[in-house]
Each structure stands twice: as C-alpha cells, then as structure tokens.
Amino acid sequence: MIVAGPTCSGKSALALALARQVNGTIINTDSMQVYRDLRILTARPDATEEACVPHALYGVLPAAESGSVAWWRTQAIAAAHDAWDAGRVPVFCGGTGMYFRALTDGLADIPQPPDSIRAQARDMVGRLGPRAVHDMLRQHDPETAATLRPTDGQRIARAWEVREATGHGLVWWRREAVLPPLDAHFVAIRLHPPRDALRAAIARRFHAMLDHGAMAEVARLLAQDLSPTLPAMRAHGVPELAAVLRGDMDMAEAAQQAIRMTGQYTKRQATWFAHHALAAEVDTFLYEKRFEKCDDAQQMERCGKKIISFVIKRIDAGQGFP
C-alpha cells in the first residue's frame, strides 16, 4: 500500500490509521525522515505513534551520511518482505517521488562511487558553487547536465561523482542498467489538499517545531561541522535556523522564509504526483483534503471511512501480498 502526497498533507496520520486497520507495517518513503538527527524538523512519527504499529526506515542514518535512492530501494524492499513474512501489509508512506518511482518502476543499477570521489565532488560544489560545477558537467556530460537545475548542488555532485567514477553519465546508466520494481500489487492513496489549507498547516507546524526544540536540534547538527552539501544540512528549516544561530537572520525572517520554501516544495511535490501514477487507476484513491489525525475508532470512522473501505476492498482483490 502507498500513502503519498506533499509535506504536511496528513500522510503520517493516515498511514497510521490505515496500518491499524489492515495489520500494516509503515515503511518510510521520505528522503529526510531517514536521518536520526532530525526527528523534529522532518516531523518523524513520535515514540507513541511508533509503538502503535511497526515502523521501518525512520531515523536509521546519521546526518554525516548521504542516503541514496538505490540505498533506500534495497532497504525498502527488504522491509516489505519482512512485513510479508510477519503476515503484515507494507504501508509505504512519504512524499519523495524518486523513492516511489524506484519502488514501483525500478531503478538504474549505478555502481557506488568510491568514498574519495564522492567527497571530492561534494567539496567541489562547496568550494566552487553548484553553478560552476554544473558548467563543468555540461562540458563532460551534457546529456545529464541538461536534466539538472544549475542550483541543485546535491544532484550536481551526484552526477559529477558518477561520471568521474564510471566514465558514464547518469542518463547513460538510466538507459543501460535497470533494477526491477518491487513485485507486488500496489494500492495507492494520494493526498492532494487545497493550497491554502496546506500553507496554513505548514505555518502551524513550523511554529510548533520551534516550540518543541527545533532550534536546539539544528544547533546539535551544526556542532558536527558537516559538509553543507549533505542532504540533512538542506532539510527544510535547517538553513534558516542555522542562519539565526550564526546571527545572519532574525527568527521572524527565518520562520517566514522556511515556511515559504516549504510551501514552494509542496507545490513541486503535488505536480510530480499529479503526473506519475503510483498504482493502477482502479487501485488509486485521490483524497483532496488534508487528512487530520484520528485518535480513536469513532473519529477514524468519520474522517476515513471511505478510504478504509476502498483500501480493504483493493487489498482483498490483490491479496495484499506478492
């Protein structure tokens, strides 16, 4: 089962409600929630929620490491099989489109570059800036460079390290070597709340994060003196709160910018999900509201009755197992 949608749309609450109903294991499909250093700012499920049903791939990597799509795919497929072996239904929950695509469509089998080349690529982006390295990539691998935004330092570093390590660009690898998708019957719930509701929820959640220790979380992250090109250092809210800690920005400005940047990201997420099917049409439920947390069975019946009915019917049709 897949529960997908933009940040702050209520995915975690819905996944938890569904997992309770179908005896599920929730498997993280969010590229930032894999980092253990960022429980607050990435809105990872709390200990109480994790105790309700099994959860997998939440907070499993240190911020000093870079979790790739290939790494996640391997771990996620293993977690799905662990769930099936235990007689449970895997519930993939998140908002990272590339992760879902690797799960449902497969992924290019790209060799892992040596650590020395990976470090060199990230150092180049940090020293020269993403635009300069993008210009260099365009000279050596124009096909891949054409697919990347010149400001996307993380993906530019990834493209450079693959080219340096293998002699071929990312686009070449995606054509030539493909790992298969998870062999399963997918049932997908896609959340697509109105933009105004999403913006309001993002603002509320960011201020709640501040109240629950987000600033201290970022201070601990900065104390590790990590490369600014690492994914965890670019999580929503981290650059802005880091600027506050350095004295480069006041809190009001930081909050406003973090909320705005998160809102822009959710727009890109919604566009991606609108153009990429995660399951067959008959197995897909579009929920055009923000799913609110349901704390008891009666509330669940009111706010998710149609979704529960749909999911159980489609899981029964496909048996919920490979």
Automatic annotation (TrEMBL):
- Residues annotated as region Interaction with substrate tRNA? 30-33, 154-158
Q: Which cofactor does it need?
A: Mg(2+)
Binding, ATP = 5-12
Residues binding substrate are 7-12
Annotated InterPro entries: Dimethylallyltransferase, IPT, P-loop_NTPase
* EC number from the UniProt entry: 2.5.1.75
Concerning SUPFAM superfamilies, the annotation shows: P-loop containing nucleoside triphosphate hydrolases
- Give start-end ranges for the coiled-coil region(s): none
- Residues at the site labelled Interaction with substrate tRNA: 96, 118
The top EC class is transferase
Q: Which reaction does it catalyse?
A: adenosine(37) in tRNA + dimethylallyl diphosphate = N(6)-dimethylallyladenosine(37) in tRNA + diphosphate
What does this gene product do? Answer: Catalyzes the transfer of a dimethylallyl group onto the adenine at position 37 in tRNAs that read codons beginning with uridine, leading to the formation of N6-(dimethylallyl)adenosine (i(6)A).
Q: How does it assemble?
A: Monomer.
PANTHER family to which the protein is assigned, alphabetical: TRNA DIMETHYLALLYLTRANSFERASE
Identify its protein family: Belongs to the IPP transferase family.
The protein in question is named tRNA dimethylallyltransferase
